[in-house]
């Protein structure tokens, strides 16, 4: 899930629509609402956040350094001012990157992936036997051949891979793929997505790489 903070509802709604087209959940806040949510949100909800995008907010209302007390997700400033002084000021506040608008949504996702790769010192993909799972939106590969997947199934596979074999609950998967605040979709949709994903992986790999335990959740067998 991507969280964007901006005082303009039109902006947050616009990003929500753009990210949804890429199969990425998004939640929008005004700065006052965001502060209340961060201070009270369960750790499980914050772990589902892939990155924070900070847009037009009241000065001093968002502290990237304080955010890091609760989450390691990248903090990126979206700037409408094309000048060096403003860019330096944003970096001094503690953000991980500054992106000048207008910007294509795929560039934002690419920058988020790059920051996370540097932080985790990984190669941008996870190799599990014959399966290579990318973290930048590309379809996975089996024995070097692409395996096309619907965007939700691809994101679930990426999320399982990003947890390095640790077990994640159905709620965690749902929050990461659909967002914490999506009330229009039932959480049980995760079971349907994973069932279809497991069938496709079994057909290509000859075995099921996803281990599931009732009430405990799912993990990739690494």
Automatic annotation (TrEMBL):
<protein>
    <submittedName>
        <fullName>DNA-binding response OmpR family regulator</fullName>
    </submittedName>
</protein>
<dbReference type="GO" id="GO:0000976">
    <property type="term" value="F:transcription cis-regulatory region binding"/>
</dbReference>
<feature type="domain" description="OmpR/PhoB-type">
    <location>
        <begin position="123"/>
        <end position="222"/>
    </location>
</feature>
<feature type="domain" description="Response regulatory">
    <location>
        <begin position="1"/>
        <end position="116"/>
    </location>
</feature>
<dbReference type="GO" id="GO:0006355">
    <property type="term" value="P:regulation of DNA-templated transcription"/>
</dbReference>
<keyword id="KW-0805">Transcription regulation</keyword>
<dbReference type="GO" id="GO:0005829">
    <property type="term" value="C:cytosol"/>
</dbReference>
<dbReference type="InterPro" id="IPR039420">
    <property type="entry name" value="WalR-like"/>
</dbReference>
<keyword id="KW-0804">Transcription</keyword>
<keyword id="KW-0238">DNA-binding</keyword>
<dbReference type="InterPro" id="IPR001867">
    <property type="entry name" value="OmpR/PhoB-type_DNA-bd"/>
</dbReference>
<dbReference type="GO" id="GO:0032993">
    <property type="term" value="C:protein-DNA complex"/>
</dbReference>
<dbReference type="InterPro" id="IPR011006">
    <property type="entry name" value="CheY-like_superfamily"/>
</dbReference>
<dbReference type="InterPro" id="IPR016032">
    <property type="entry name" value="Sig_transdc_resp-reg_C-effctor"/>
</dbReference>
<dbReference type="Pfam" id="PF00486">
    <property type="entry name" value="Trans_reg_C"/>
</dbReference>
<dbReference type="InterPro" id="IPR001789">
    <property type="entry name" value="Sig_transdc_resp-reg_receiver"/>
</dbReference>
<dbReference type="GO" id="GO:0000156">
    <property type="term" value="F:phosphorelay response regulator activity"/>
</dbReference>
<feature type="DNA-binding region" description="OmpR/PhoB-type">
    <location>
        <begin position="123"/>
        <end position="222"/>
    </location>
</feature>
<dbReference type="InterPro" id="IPR036388">
    <property type="entry name" value="WH-like_DNA-bd_sf"/>
</dbReference>
């Amino acid at each position: 899930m991507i969280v964007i903070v901006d005082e303009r509802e039109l902006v947050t709604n616009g990003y929500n629509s753009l990210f949804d087209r890429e199969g990425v959940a998004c939640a929008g806040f005004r700065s006052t609402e965001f502060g209340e949510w961060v201070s009270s949100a369960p750790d499980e909800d914050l772990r589902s956040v892939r990155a924070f995008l900070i847009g037009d907010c009241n000065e001093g209302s968002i502290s990237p350094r304080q955010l890091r007390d609760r989450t390691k997700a990248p903090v990126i400033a979206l700037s409408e001012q094309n000048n060096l002084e403003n860019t330096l000021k944003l970096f001094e506040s503690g953000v991980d990157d500054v992106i000048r608008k207008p910007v294509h949504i795929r560039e934002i996702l690419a920058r988020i992936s790059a920051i996370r790769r540097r932080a985790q010192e990984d190669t941008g993909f996870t190799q599990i036997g014959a399966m290579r799972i990318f973290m930048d939106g590309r379809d996975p590969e089996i024995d070097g051949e692409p395996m096309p997947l619907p965007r939700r199934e691809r994101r679930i596979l990426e999320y399982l891979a990003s947890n390095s074999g640790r077990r994640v609950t159905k709620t965690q998967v749902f929050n990461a793929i659909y967002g914490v605040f999506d009330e229009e979709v039932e959480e049980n949709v995760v079971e349907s997505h994973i069932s279809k994903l497991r069938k496709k992986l079994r057909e290509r790999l000859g075995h099921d790489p996803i281990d599931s335990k009732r009430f405990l959740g799912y993990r990739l067998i690494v």
